[in-house]
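just leaving the lab so this will be short. below you get a single protein, a line of residues and a line of whole numbers that encode the local backbone shape. id like you to explain what the token line says about the fold, in plain words if possible. thanks a lot i owe you, the record is right below:

…
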Amino acid sequence: MASTGDNTPPVTRRDEGAVAIITLDRPAARNSLSRAMLAALQTALDSVAVEDGIRAVVIAAEGPAFSAGHDLKEITARRADPDGGAAFFAETMAACGAVMQRVVALPQPVVAAVEGIATAAGCQLAASCDLVVAAASAKFCTPGVDIGLFCSTPGVALARAVPRKPAMEMLLLGEMVPAEEAHRMGLVNRVVPAGTALATALELAQRIASRSAVAVRMGKRGFNAQAALPLAEAYEAAGRVMVENLLAEDAAEGIGAFIGKRRPEWRHR
């Protein structure tokens, strides 16, 4: 796993049963998404994706900020490159985009636990997750316009998480959005007391992990696929997922348990 200059891993992982907790661990840098951080996060997500025993994921952060976005000091330093930093900037945007797409495509549902600020690419990361739990003191922002750098790539995730008008307001004004307002616009699922976002996110993830893994994985994949389709095609695609799901052992077990008024025993297949 990639590391920072002091050899401290920028991303850590611990498991709580069937839930993997992936933690951004550059608190002194407000968990900015340096290239090392992005590489480590990509590695952690790729590892989780192939582990059948992990049925849900929580993304959390150490320190007072969830993530302040791209590492602007790292970006600025590369302006001295012969091409003015163009190649590095392109590679950085591609690496960041790959991480966000990995979160969306991960077989397991992903819950973000946000304490403090989630700005620019940090907001993008939260918006890319399936669920977001935010502390009441948390704030979300895409402030690129304030420094002459419109948050175009964070806007991709934002536009898929909230309606167009609130998304454009965030992108055009760059204002901090309190957790309660983020909840009203649909960016956040739950607002909880400060210091409890991780505990709540873990509780939700554990509830998800207690369900049939095959049903949840098919459901996440199918939901994301149909969301990009016109209505008729969406129903056709969702219908195929339902048929696939009905043929799974867990569907037969779950329906049988419901009819028999007993608890299902998931086989996760």
